[in-house]
Structures are given as C-alpha cells and as structure tokens.
Design brief:
Order of helices and strands: HHEHEHHEHEHEHEHEEHHHH
Largest sheet: 8 strands, parallel, barrel
Number of domains: 2
Radius of gyration: 29 Å
Shape: elongated
CATH superfamily of the largest domain: Phosphoenolpyruvate-binding domains
CATH topology of the largest domain: TIM Barrel
Number of strands: 8
CATH class of the largest domain: Alpha Beta
Structural class: alpha/beta
CATH architecture of the largest domain: Alpha-Beta Barrel
Bound molecules: 3-methyl-2-oxobutanoic acid
Length: 311
C-alpha cells in the first residue's frame, strides 16, 4: 500500500451521496446517536446517516418528553457525535421552538452546522413547516423533514403516541405534508408511525427518499432509535427490533462487578501494579535504621525516623 493510500482521509458523505444511494435503489439505514463512543461504532459499521435526535431527551436525559430538550443540550450531543464520526452524514434535530420563526430557524440551524459541525438539520412538520424548510434550504442548509407522528407536537396531537393518517382526511393531509416538504427543498423525509400502505404511496410519489420508523418496509430507508436497536431501554416499541440485549448485559456486568468488589476478587494481581519494595521502604522510613522495632538501632539510640530527616 502506498503512503498516500495509507493516509487517505475518509470522506464525509453529503446529501448528494444520499441522493445517489436513493437513485441506485439502495435502502438507506439511519440510526440515532447521542455520544462519542456510540457514534464511532455506528460510523465503523458504515451507517451513512446518523441523527442526533431530540429523542436524547427521553432515552438519555430522562425527560418525559422531547419538548423539554434545549438547543444547548442538542449542540452538546451533536458535537460529541460529530467528533465520533468521519464518514457518516450527521443530522442535528432542531428542538421544540428552535424554528418557530424563520429568523430563529436560521440562527439555530446555523449553530448546528457552524458550532457543532453537523451537515444537516431535521425539522418536524409538513405544510406548517414548509416556509421554514425553504428558508433553510435557500441559505444552503440541507434539511430532512419529519411527518406522521411528530413528538414535539405531542400535546397538539392528543398526547398519546399513535399511528397517524388512518382516515381519508388525515391520509390526504399527510400526502400534502409530504409533497410540501419535498417542494420546500428537503433532501429526505422521515415518516413516523404511518400505515404501511400510506407510507408506500408517499414513497412512490416522492422524488426524495422516505426514511421510515414504524412506517413499514416500503420506505426508501429506515431509522431506529439506537437504544431500541441495542435493547438498552426497559420498554421497546412495537415497531422496533432489538438487535442486541444490552440492558441484560449491563445488568449482569454491574451485578458481577459489585459481587467481585464485595468478595475482594476484584482487582486481582493481573489488574494491579507493583513497585520496587525498596522505594516504599525508603518513603515509609522502613530501612534498617528507620524501623521503630529495630533492635540494633534501639541499642545504638537511632531507632525510628530521626526528627531532622528530610522526608
Ligand atoms: O428524535 C428522534 O430520534 C427522531 C427519530 C425517531 C426520527 O426524530
């Protein structure tokens, strides 16, 4: 391998690359990440789209809803995810009320890209967010839309998480939402909790990739909350598939560790280090002349640490 090949930098994916995957008919996997080590693993696994979702509020920060998440918290987590990735396109999720007006949207989306290093932002809402999306796209900020169940509008949508678009009116308005997001210039759109057939119909009619979560198998890609994927939470939604069971793994590890500490079997010799005993003797005044119980020293009147000794 030549020196140039060995030092070749990994290129970060762009929205054009995602567009190419879509055009080639490749199904696009997207995952959320909120911290450096997880982001690094997802990047190593080749996940092309990593979303720093405001779901961080519920699954990492312990809030009861994403409505509580602030820009400061989102930027903090986005910076960590950007540092952990080299190749993935990182999307920062615009939190509740951070894009209520065009000016606020531009300022806050700018912070995601300029301060935190994300390459795109995600905005909830269809027709109602179209003008905002358009302004961001015009300013050169790639935007991912998000329709169907939109958690930030939870209180306006009746509070209960449920599949959207099951009636004629609601299905029509979801189609209108999808088209509005596309026409505003978004590069892709998340469909959350949408019936399979409606998600398929939307996917068929759009020229941008649909990324489904609880929206069936016919979307152009899928997104999952990483803690669901890893089986970390105590509740796994019906639409999620845990590919690992880290909750049990972590519980077992923590219990085994506590038991080993209690029994004294951790740390063992292999997990500890030693030093030259003579150095410690010197430090603790344990040389023959320093020892309080040194018979010879006592007889000679020099037992114990001399008062004028430089310790
Ligand atoms: O915040 C989030 O994790 C999301 C995904 C569910 C799409 O918005």
């Amino acid at each position: 391998m030549s020196a140039t090949a060995a030092t070749k930098e990994v290129q970060r994916l762009t929205v054009a690359d995602i567009g190419r995957m879509y055009a080639d008919g490749e199904r696009i996997p997207m995952l959320t990440a909120y911290d450096f080590p997880t982001a690094r693993l997802l990047d190593d696994a080749g996940i092309p789209l990593v979303l720093v979702g405001d779901s961080v509020g519920e699954v990492v920060l312990g809030y009861e809803s994403t409505v509580r998440v602030s820009m400061t918290e989102m930027l903090h987590h986005t910076r960590a995810v950007v540092r952990g990735t080299q190749r993935a396109l990182v999307i920062g999720d615009m939190p509740f009320l951070s894009y209520a007006t065009t000016d606020e949207a531009l300022t806050n989306a700018g912070r995601f890209l300029r301060d935190a290093g994300a390459q795109a932002v995600k905005v909830e809402g269809g027709v109602r967010s179209a003008r905002i999306i358009e302004s961001l796209v015009r300013a050169g900020i790639p935007v991912q839309g998000h329709i169907g169940w939109t958690p930030q509008a939870k209180y306006a949508m009746g509070g209960k998480v449920r599949v959207q678009g099951k009636t004629v009116d609601r299905a029509r308005s979801m189609l209108a939402d999808a088209l509005a997001v596309q026409e505003s210039g978004a590069f892709s759109i998340v469909l959350e909790l949408v019936p399979d057939q409606l998600a398929a119909a939307i996917t068929e009619r759009l020229r941008i990739p649909t990324i489904g979560i609880g929206a069936g198998p016919h979307c152009s890609g899928q997104v999952q909350v990483v803690t669901d994927l890893l089986g970390l939470g105590s509740f796994i939604p019906r639409h999620a598939r845990p590919y690992a069971h880290l909750r049990e793994t972590i519980l077992e590890a923590a219990r085994a560790y506590a038991a080993d500490v209690a029994s004294g079997s951790f740390p063992s010799k292999a997990e500890s280090s030693t030093m030259d005993e003579r150095v410690l003797d010197e430090v603790l005044g344990r040389s023959a002349v320093d020892r309080a119980d040194d018979v010879l020293g006592r007889e000679q009147g020099v037992a114990g640490v001399p008062l004028d000794r430089d310790l």
